[in-house]
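Forum: Protein Structure Q&A
Topic: Joint prediction for protein chains with partners

I've read a bunch of threads here and the consensus seems to be that you should model interacting components together rather than docking separate models afterwards. I'd like to see that in practice. Below is the full input, 867 residues plus whatever partners are listed. Could one of the regulars post the assembled result?
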Amino acid sequence: MLIDGKNWALHRPWFYACLVASVLAGVWYFASYVPPNWPGGSSKAGFTFGILGGLICIFEMLLWWRKKVRTWRIGRTQVWLRAHIWLGLLSVPLLVFHSGFRFGGTLSTVLMSLFLIVIVSGVWGLALQQYLPSKMLHDVPSETIFSQIDNLSGQVLRDAERLVRATCGTLVEEEGPTGVEEQQEPGAYLTIGAIRSAGQVQGKVLQTRVPAAPVEGAEALQYFFDQSVAPYLQEGAASGSLLAQANRSAVIFEEIKTHVPPEAHEAVDALAGWCEQRRQLDLQARIHFWLHNWLWVHLPLAVALIVLMFVHTWVAIQYW
Amino acid sequence: MAYETGKQRAARVPLDYFKHPDWLQRWKLRFTGLALVFTLAWLAIGWVRSDQGRYRYSRGPVAAVHGAWETECQACHVSFMPMDSKEGMGHLLGLRSESDTRCVVCHKGPEHHASQITEQTPGCGHCHRDHRGVDAKLARVADGDCTLCHGNLTKHVKAGVQTEYQNVSLFEARPAGSTSLGHPNFKVFREPNSADPGMLRLNHKRHMTPGMVLTADGKAFTLADIKDSAERERYRLQQPEGQRADSSPVHLDCVSCHRLDSGNFGIKPDMLGNLPTQPLLPPRAPGAYMLPIVYDMQCKACHPLDLERAKPDNPKVASLTLPHRLQPQDMHGWLTKTFENRYLKGEGSNLLDKFVPVRPIPGKAMTEPSKLTALAKDAIANQVYESEKAMYWNAKLCGECHHFDTTKPGGKVDPALVKLGTAPDLRVRPTAVPVIWYQHASFNHAAHRSVDCRQCHAKAYPFLPDGKANPTVSEKTGDIMVPDIENCLQCHAPRSHAGGQPRGGARFDCAECHRYHNGDNPMQGIGATAQDAKKKRTIQQVLQGND
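Posted by a regular:
Agreed with the consensus. Here's the joint model:
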């Protein structure tokens, strides 16, 4: 969730409410201080903060269900997320006061450690969300759905292969589930397309048009495709190809053009375009990973935190 | 560059893509499941342990003194009842603290003062907060727990009770005109005309002067003047180097009389006569207070109660040493019997140089036997009379150190009370030398043993460190020679530097010097029965923390 000048007005009430609540909590807590012992969890202030902090933790977990069950009409998800962020931050002073600035025993130490890691991971995720999405928007114009990157790359690889074979004269007609279709048009250009299905509706999207007739002397293109382009389109940066670097890729493709007839240059440009797309998808994958990997820490530890919080509540009340 | 447009890319995406989570989401769910499993496994493992996980759930290690019940929560806690019902949520919810019933099983914790309002008195758990680590000192309560009442005493004592104590807020000098800020000076210095309550005449200036001589032409008291050889040797060892000859003047210092441990007196049990050795020479004394002054240990060597000394030129006159600790009435009887025995044995006396009646020979008829008996009785009575005059009014025997009272109301104590033939109407006033001056505070000399005695008891010294005469030296018994609060504040204050000199740094919280429980019996120690457990239990019961 972005917190910037444009939507600060939406966050502002939350910010001030949490700030005021934190200050009031601090005033109450420090007013309860009897040297040398900080008020603990069973003091009036500490107990109250513990209750509030626990309720906030439960609310924070409910965001998961709110996102899962989208038919819930209990407030907009955006509002929930804003509440999640600001109430989560408010829980920090509340629960630190509740602890009396002590880690205490094993359970409470584990609890406080989990809590702090969850908070830090959440803040980390929030910080990344201020920067990475805009970077992705700017640097990845070819953005697609993250989970479909491999699928899309596979389709692009097949299209590219057909284009190269058509250019080099080694193309064999085939049809398949993707509905790759060849069509000869007047003017000797080949159209590579994809057929999409949605229920009973099927449609076709047209792609690049290239010369239908093979180009003499373009065998180097086939070799280049098999050795460099195909692995890169398949595996991306993991292939270790030099095509992963934009500058080197440009140089390589320029050089390839010197090895093939001019009629094949359009095919070369198409390959270069697909490689550029692949680079962007690689970048998108990295950015997406960093945008979401903090959840590997945040969510599991939050679940553990909730379970142990209930145990702590029971034990604390039994032996307070 | 003729690569795909966004629309073209979107065309490649299956419409049900969202039903299949990507690998990031799958691992997120796997890690979440793992976290849940590990958490439950950790709880389960804790449950199957011998303590059923109680150590894990504890809010922190208990103090070392409660270590035996680290995992026996029920030893101190009553389930779902707060430890402290006077403050916090327990108080807010109106819950009664029943945990006090668990505490008193081991130690009663008698009330502070009978005058305090019981309803305002917090429970054990309010002041003694455990689970703060093995090194926590449970008896080291916060000042706020004390000033809760002592900050405004009149609100916390029962109606109609007048308290003699003043309000306290902090251990620091009380500002002039204030009745509540800081700490008042110690009681002995606040009372007008206060004096040492001891009824034993002692001149520290004389005793601390080498040879006990205060005038230029005075005769110094030397080692040779200590008649008892064993005592002479005992004091010889205490003399400075080079001053151990018999002719050397006796040097006394603080430790000549004031000791923290009986082993340092150099007293052998046979030097105490019939006195009980163990009470006078207690083993392993804690070293907090000086051992009491006992005539037989600290005084007798120089102040023997020799009524008569044997003389080489008159072997018939034997030494006569008076017993200590007899009141004049009993002493009168002792003297009479002693002189009667001497007469019967034919021993002479320096008090009988005037008349020695003839002792009748058994079996032979005497002329006027009743007259001889009467004469003997008169002579003995005179001996007793002369002895008593010497004892009570001569500055060498009883009268040198003791104060006397008479039973006659308003009667004057003077030599006229000693009469021939009757016990004098005199009573030796109890010496009442205080062993503990600050009865409502604790002081430990052993903790201060690195400090020179002079720093707190300067009045005991006739000379200053530079050798000049000390103008404040004590010459009268009534002088108070214990330090006041200003002396203590030099160390027991916040750390600071004044004029380049360090000040303070030692602890100055209430618990450093004061105790709470059994406050109405300040002279009882930790071993008093008031502090005992509610009842005795077996070892297993103790370890389990229940009855």
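The mean pLDDT of chain B is 87.
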